[in-house]
Structures are given as C-alpha cells and as structure tokens.
Amino acid sequence: MEHLIKSKIIENAQTLFNAPINEQLVQLQKTRKEVEGDLTLVIFPFVKMMRCSPQEAGQIIGDFLVKEIPAISKYEVVNGYLNLVISTDFWVNELKNIHADDNFGLQTPNSKPTIMVEYSSPNTNKPLHLGHLRNIFLGFSVAEILKANGHKVVKTQIINDRGIHICKSMLAWQKFSPINAQGERETPQNTGIKGDKLVGKYYVEFDKHFNAEAKAIIALWEQGNFENYSTAIKDEFIRLTEAKNGKDEKAIKAIDDKIKDLAKNQTSILKEAKEMLVKWEAKDAEVYDLWSTMNQWVYDGFEKTYTTMNVDFDELYYESNTYLLGKDIVEEGLKKGVFFKKDDGSVWIDLTADGLDEKLVLRSDSTAVYMTQDMGTAVERYNSHPDLSGIVYTVGNEQDYHFKVLFLILDKLGYSWAKNCFHLSYGMVDLPEGKMKSREGTVVDADDLMNEVVESATEMTKERGHIEGLSENDLSNLCQMIGLGGLKYFLLKVDPKKRMKFNPAESVELNGNTAPFIQYAHARIQSLLAKSTGELNTINPSEVNDVEKEIIKQLTLFPSIIEEAGRDYAPSVVANYTYELVKLYNQFYQSVTILNESDEQLKQFRLILSKNVAKTIKTAMKLMGIDVPNRM
RNA sequence: GGCUCCGUAGCUCAACUGUAUAGAGCACUGGAUUUCGGCUCCAGCGGUUGGGGGUUAGAAUCCCUCCGGGGUCACCA
Prior knowledge:
632 residues; five-stranded parallel β-sheet; four-stranded antiparallel β-sheet; 24 helices; RNA-binding; alpha/beta
C-alpha cells in the first residue's frame, strides 16, 4: 500500500505540484493511535511548491488519493499531516491472504546470494560462558533471519585450538593432575567431569602457579637479589619501582602490573609452555598426541552445550589448519605495493591516510599474526565457495578496530567482495552485580546458567499447575523450552551493539517483554483452536473492531520486519515486533468472547485471526531459535 | 592522550531513512474480569532524551563542544 501511494504521488507530481519530485519527499508513516487513520503523509515538504496552506495542500492530495486508490476510503488533514483511512475490506482481504499463505513472511529458500555467518569461535582451553551465549544466539538468529529473507546461509565457526593458551592447560594437566590407582591422570572418563570443564580447570591451575611463581620472583627482586636475571631486567625493575614515587593509587597499580608482567615473563612455567608450543609447531609426536586428546575432550564438552542450546553449524574451521594461511597474500600485497617491508623483515600496511595507523601483517621472523590468518581465511572461504556473496562475523565489539582494518586491507588488495563483509559487533553482557571478570571468578558458565533458567522455569510451571496429563518427559521438554526460550529472548531483544545487563530471574518471568509471556499467548491460542470445531474458512464479518483491525495491520507488517531485521542484522527487531503483536492480541482476547460468540461468521473470523497470530508468533520465535509449546 | 561506541522514567529496554503530545515492561497506586487458560485488561504516577551551542518548517536522531562510562591502540589471539 505504501508503495502504491508513493508511486501514485510521484507519477502525478507534475499535476499536483507543478514540478517533479524525488522519492525522499514522500514520507509515509503509521498514523498515531489517538487519531483516526492508518497511514499518514507528511505534507510540509510540498507546501512551498504548492503555494498554499498545509491544510489546503493536504486536501488536494487527499482528494487525489481517494479518487485514485479505491482502498483509501477517506482522509483527514490535521496540523500538516494527511491521515488516510484504509477500508475494512482491504484489511479483511489482507487477512485472507495471510491465512492462505502457509509460509507467511518467509521468502523462497535459496533465492538470494549465499552468505556465510560465523559465530561462537571458542578457545579450546576453557568452557563457554555468558558472553558466548549472546554471541551464539545472535549469530544463529541472524543466520535464520537471512534464510527467511531467501538467502542461502552457511553457518560456521572457527575454533581457536592452538597457541600458547592451549599449551598452558596442557602443561598444567601434565604437571599437576593427580595420578590414580590405575596410574592414569584425570580424564573426563575417570572423573565424570565434562571435558571442557576439566581442561578449563587446568587452565586455571596454570594461572595459579604462574602467579605464585611471579610473586616469588618479585619478592627476590625486592630483596635486591638478581642472581639469575640479566642487568636489563634489574635496571627495568629499579626504574619501575622508582617511578612509583609520588604517584597516586591508580598509577601505582598500573606500574605494579607492569612489574608483574616483567616477572611473569621470567617464570619457568611460562618458558615451559613456550617450549611446548615450539614442539607443537614442529609436530612433536608426544605433544601433538596430548593436544589432540585434550582438544577432543573439549569438543565433546562443547557438543553437549551446543545440543542444549539447540544450535548447529554447517562448517567448522580449525585455527590449527588456518594459522599458516595468508602468507602468500602478504607476498601478493607486497608486489602490488599495498604492503611494505621494514628493515628487520617485518611487513606492514600504512593506513594513516585512512585515519588509522600502521598495522603489522607479518612478523620479522616471517610468522603470521592474527590479521594474516584472517586475511587468508577470508580468501580461502571465497575460494571454496564460488557463490559466496558475503561473510558476517559475529565477534564482540572489543574487536571493532581489528575488523575495520581487516576489511580495509581486503579492499585495498582488490577483493571486490570485501565490501560485503560485515562485523556483527555486539556489546558486553553485564550481570546485576556488575562486570564479569575471570580473575575474580565472576564469570557465569554457560551450562550452569542454562541449568539455572530451566530450573526456575520448572519451579514456576509446577507452581502454576495445569500440567496434569503431561508425562515426566513432556514436562521436562516444556520447561526446557520455557527456560531456554526466556534466556535466548532476553539476550536477543536488546539492540546487539549495545552493552546490556542480564538478569536471569527476569528472563523467565511470565510478565513483560519475555519469551514465556509470548509462549503463553501462543499456548492459549492453541488451546482455543483445539476446542473449536469445524473447518475454519469464513472470513467475512459484518464489522471489524479497532483492535482486530490493528492486529491485522500488525500482521501485514511481518514480512517487512523480517527484511529490516536482515538488513540491520538485528534479531531485536523481530523480538520487539512479536511482543507488540502479543500485547495487541491480549487486548483483543480480553475484550471479546470467541468460543461463545453467537454470530457464527464473527466467531470464525476471530478464530482465524487468532490462528494467524499464533502462526506468526511461531515463525517469529523460530527466527530467534525459540520453540513455542502448544500448551504450558 | 589518539581513535571508537554508548548516555532516554527509580530499574531493564523501545522509538524505521529527522516529523504530531518521546513509548513499553518491571516496581508503585487505584480499578475491571475471575468464564476460551490461572500472571489477562484499563487508568494513574513517573522525562529539560547527560549539559550547552548549531543546522532545519521540524532533532533523542545530523554537526560542534564539554561532562560521564565502555572498548581499543602488542612482532597476543
């Protein structure tokens, strides 16, 4: 309808305004609730051209539209706004179309270019936490939304399975894991501990010893004992210590941290870890075996977590396979003059002209850095997917700068697809108690959190009753849907780029902007439909009340909501839409009787309206990876 | 310090590419219904959109500046 009105006005601009106009001048918006009408045209932009008052201008355009478009039944001009009323017939007809369309809102699958969505990207040295949950739900949901928009989507994750941090947990396990009666060290099998948790435990263990050793070294230095250390270190320590004089508390803390770093670099345990990494890179059999074994523990653990989350991936990339990629691209870039080499052999790109700085792309020992890898991986992905049109990287906003540089480099190297790469950047998740800090042990584990929300959902469901006839298994599935749905919805309803505060208790509330509230409305409609008898096919009520009309209006918006969510990579758009729809439906539900309605046509209309609301809710929730139960 | 993102009701969040009186929920107060499904509905309370300036017929939205907060500025990933 909006398109129709716009094009009518533009086509007839010459007669209406004595001048052609561009599309931007025609601004249509939803009419405010207090005023009669469905669509509103802003007429200020035309007033000058028409040389008359806003009132007169509105009437001229209004008369024109009523004459040209049959569905517009009347209009009213208020304060420079032209409010157009669209006929009831039009809305009833819209509902008929929606009712007839089983895939309402969804575009033909695979009709649009392929997009790769990368999300999760965990390290294999510790379990997933709350931050990963936002990442994974976001990425998964964006993938679903893009599919709904007709794109072919490849869901992927890159697993950071190598590097010094992995060696740390390996080393700690080797050094500190107790040996049982059978002569074995701790494994997931003999302890029953989930693999990722067990490996994470040893990563923490490493850190403990690491810190203790550093502390001991500092104590030696403070006594003036530098026996085992070079004069450079001695000088640096003395310089830092003297720098503390007369500084405030904050500055002293910063210097202490530097001293700690200095000491950490001297620890034997870190040296061992570094040696282990060198061995790994040389594919030393023993180290490589240990690495494979422990990583497998972690994968098994992650697998369980992903299953609970109900997310999946189409393709996996392992950093151990990709970390050497990109070097040939550096060569290519050098030839093209995009990169330059410094005297020590390191390779850089100068981005100062773009308002950024110089960025390293290859170390002086000619090993790759993070940026090199990412360049290589991107090119690799395009090579192995000739139909790939874009990549969406779901990564926290602390890496905004990295991706800005990455895309810029790819663009400078001449890859035309670089402009289709998008960093889906999201803000940190805070807890009611404040920021998560791994050092202070305030990190919320993903498995624990999911258990917690399911447990609260179980409690609330049992309290509410109405679960008779449900088997133990059904009840458990139901609570899983409610708890996890609440969690997902809570994390997705907020604009991705904003930092947010997560409150577990609030996420499973049956009131307010929550998944359970929406799920409940859906369940109620299902029960209503189950109680009705006969075929639902009559959609011709003699009259349609305001709330009903409002609901249809909201339903017709659904396809454009999906488009908008896809364009902005924002599941929050879908979430907030769904909530609005449910609130409207509740209003309707409160104000009319449905099953006891004596007018058979009206009863059918209301049932069909309800059915299509439920259908839309279900589709919308599916785009966020949330299941809706038929009863709860 | 440079760059960057953010600042909206007591709290958690909305507001499409600028547009009418900035909206929901939670909490609080009052009322309706207790009947298809029980936490449903209506009303009230609550705001100088961090401060100031500018552009515009019109600014939470765009520009400048200041204040406050986050992130980032490694031959880490």
